[in-house]
């Protein structure tokens, strides 16, 4: 089953110039955060922006939206969501993408906005993973190591494809466990062995 679905869900290649921009952006964010350890998490400004967009588009009260989001994202209560929005806690990328999918399903964001934000999340996550790996590699060295642009781009592409494989595995597992999901996927021309 996995071979046929993997070819259908390939992420587009990212030009080297864009990779450099993603890496620089994430390095800047990390430096500005003042944190010693590198987090692979959604930046607070994106969480805040998405939450504000959902609040405005849904025309719900904050508590009503929080209650619905806690059930969608699997959070224990609205307090955790408030901590994400305030920056006290850091949201994982899969949770952010679940919020995006829910906003799309509710009609609160357009499909092209959803596509842009999801791809941006894949790019940012891959850049963060590549940077964290590079920082771990250089942190353990007695002498200073300078990574070349090619090494950084290679690390990004490796992380980007790892995210893609992880996403494909999730789709396959979900299709195996949920017949409604599999039927919907088949409607969108996915083929399972």
What does this structure look like?
With 193 residues, this protein is mostly helical. It has one domain. The chain is 73% helix and 0% strand. The protein contains 9 helices and no strands. Helix 2 crosses helix 8 (149-177). It is globular. The chain starts with a helix and ends in a 6-residue tail after the last helix.
Given the structure, what is the number of helices?
9
Could you tell me the mean pLDDT? 80
Radius of gyration: 18 Å
Shape: globular
Helix content: over 70%
| Uncertain residue ranges | 1-7
Largest sheet: none
| Structural category | mainly alpha
For the secondary structure, the number of strands is: 0
Q: Give the end-to-end Cα distance, rounded to a whole number of Å.
A: 5 Å
SSE order, one letter for each helix or strand: HHHHHHHHH
Q: Provide the domain count.
A: 1
Strand content: under 5%
How are the elements arranged and paired?
Layout: H1 2-8, H2 16-33, H3 44-58, H4 62-73, H5 78-86, H6 93-105, H7 111-139, H8 149-177, H9 179-187
Helix pairs in contact: 2-7, 2-8, 6-7, 7-8, 8-9
